Amino acid sequence: MARGDRCDSELAHARRGIVEISQTQRQERRWGAEIADAKFNLP
After folding, report:
1. pTM of the prediction?
2. In the Cβ-directed half-sphere of 9, how many Cα atoms lie within 13 Å?
3. Closest by CA position to 30, among listed 15, 17, 22
4. Distance (Å, whole) CA 3 – CA 11
5. Which domain of life does the protein's organism represent (predicted)?
6. What are the pLDDT digits (tens) for 5-43?
7. DSSP letter at 41?
């Protein structure tokens, strides 16, 4: 039972890490788009 609990908590931790990574990638994509817009709008 304890082993299954540990496995579940590790899985939850991994899922949380995956969510954080995907949020970070989305933020970086947004910044990349803003930077591209800024470069495009330069005189």
Report:
1. 0.53
2. 6
3. 22
4. 12
5. Bacteria
6. 888 899 999 999 999 999 999 999 999 999 988 888 877
7. T
